[in-house]
């Protein structure tokens, strides 16, 4: 792993989660969905009141990239200063990065995954909805609910029972012939792959309860690094199966569209 110097102890990102991050897939040094990542970072900077770094500075780590697949993590904090929770009047943001080689979980592309509902409920905070801020304790606690490697991900709902996302991926399903994904107006992270797919006009953002997954003809999880995993089994919080799916053409069609944006192999080759 290649990275910049560590954080000082008084950095507000380390102390309060006062900052943002982006995790970007690189293919032979070329960032995938770069415009979407920059757009989300800019939205987060606007919400938090942190100056947006120059695109030149954000792109500097690309000069360190090698061949093949790598993941670039960009972390931007408000920097140091201020008194307690009160931020400094004139922030001096601090930008750090890490580069690491990456291998996707291709078996999950081919065979599909088993997922479960989480007990934890996401708190609604519309001001922070959609952005990728550094305070991810809800996701950490949700992911700690299971240690069975057979379960790939956990599904998160908000405190009113509305479906939102998985712990580290966005959620999609096909129901009554329509591709749907949860609305993230109140909480959740608007993934860059999700944004790119929605921009094509084929996915509807909806408010739906957990019953939508049981009713669905197909379910997927996806993000801009791992690609798309089709779901073959959904469990409740006790590990009891709620629904099973057999992978078919409809699963592969959506997967192929998403993987085309990331340069991954099309599932038709499976």
TrEMBL record:
<dbReference type="GO" id="GO:0046656">
    <property type="term" value="P:folic acid biosynthetic process"/>
</dbReference>
<keyword id="KW-0663">Pyridoxal phosphate</keyword>
<dbReference type="GO" id="GO:0008696">
    <property type="term" value="F:4-amino-4-deoxychorismate lyase activity"/>
</dbReference>
<dbReference type="Pfam" id="PF01063">
    <property type="entry name" value="Aminotran_4"/>
</dbReference>
<dbReference type="GO" id="GO:0030170">
    <property type="term" value="F:pyridoxal phosphate binding"/>
</dbReference>
<dbReference type="InterPro" id="IPR017824">
    <property type="entry name" value="Aminodeoxychorismate_lyase_IV"/>
</dbReference>
<comment type="subunit">
    <text>Homodimer.</text>
</comment>
<comment type="pathway">
    <text>Cofactor biosynthesis; tetrahydrofolate biosynthesis; 4-aminobenzoate from chorismate: step 2/2.</text>
</comment>
<dbReference type="InterPro" id="IPR043131">
    <property type="entry name" value="BCAT-like_N"/>
</dbReference>
<dbReference type="InterPro" id="IPR001544">
    <property type="entry name" value="Aminotrans_IV"/>
</dbReference>
<keyword id="KW-0456">Lyase</keyword>
<dbReference type="InterPro" id="IPR050571">
    <property type="entry name" value="Class-IV_PLP-Dep_Aminotrnsfr"/>
</dbReference>
<dbReference type="InterPro" id="IPR043132">
    <property type="entry name" value="BCAT-like_C"/>
</dbReference>
<dbReference type="InterPro" id="IPR036038">
    <property type="entry name" value="Aminotransferase-like"/>
</dbReference>
<keyword id="KW-0289">Folate biosynthesis</keyword>
<dbReference type="GO" id="GO:0005829">
    <property type="term" value="C:cytosol"/>
</dbReference>
<dbReference type="GO" id="GO:0008153">
    <property type="term" value="P:4-aminobenzoate biosynthetic process"/>
</dbReference>
<comment type="similarity">
    <text>Belongs to the class-IV pyridoxal-phosphate-dependent aminotransferase family.</text>
</comment>
<protein>
    <recommendedName>
        <fullName>Aminodeoxychorismate lyase</fullName>
        <ecNumber>4.1.3.38</ecNumber>
    </recommendedName>
</protein>
């Amino acid at each position: 792993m290649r990275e910049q110097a560590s954080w000082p102890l008084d950095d507000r990102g380390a102390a309060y989660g006062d900052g943002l991050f982006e995790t970007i897939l690189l293919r032979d040094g070329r960032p995938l969905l770069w415009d979407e990542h920059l757009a989300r970072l800019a939205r987060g900077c606007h919400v938090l009141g942190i100056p947006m770094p120059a695109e030149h500075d954000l792109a500097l780590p690309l000069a360190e990239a090698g061949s093949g697949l790598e993941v670039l993590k960009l972390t931007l904090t408000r920097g140091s200063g201020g008194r307690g929770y009160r931020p400094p009047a004139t922030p001096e943001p601090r930008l750090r990065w890490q580069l690491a080689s990456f291998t996707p979980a291709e078996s999950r592309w081919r065979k599909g995954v088993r997922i479960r509902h989480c007990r934890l409920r996401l708190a609604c905070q519309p001001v922070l909805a959609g952005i990728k801020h550094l305070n991810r304790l809800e996701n950490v606690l949700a992911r700690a609910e299971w240690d069975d490697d057979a379960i790939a991900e956990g599904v998160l709902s908000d405190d009113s029972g509305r479906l939102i996302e998985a712990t580290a991926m966005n959620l999609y399903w096909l129901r009554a012939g329509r591709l749907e994904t949860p609305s993230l107006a109140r909480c959740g992270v608007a993934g860059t792959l999700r944004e790119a797919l929605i921009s094509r006009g084929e996915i509807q953002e909806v408010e739906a309860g957990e019953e939508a997954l049981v009713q669905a003809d197909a379910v997927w999880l996806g993000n801009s690094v791992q690609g798309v995993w089709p779901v073959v089994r959904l469990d409740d919080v006790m590990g009891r199966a709620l629904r099973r799916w057999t992978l078919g053409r409809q699963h592969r069609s959506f997967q192929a569209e998403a993987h085309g944006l990331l340069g991954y192999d099309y599932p038709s080759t499976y």
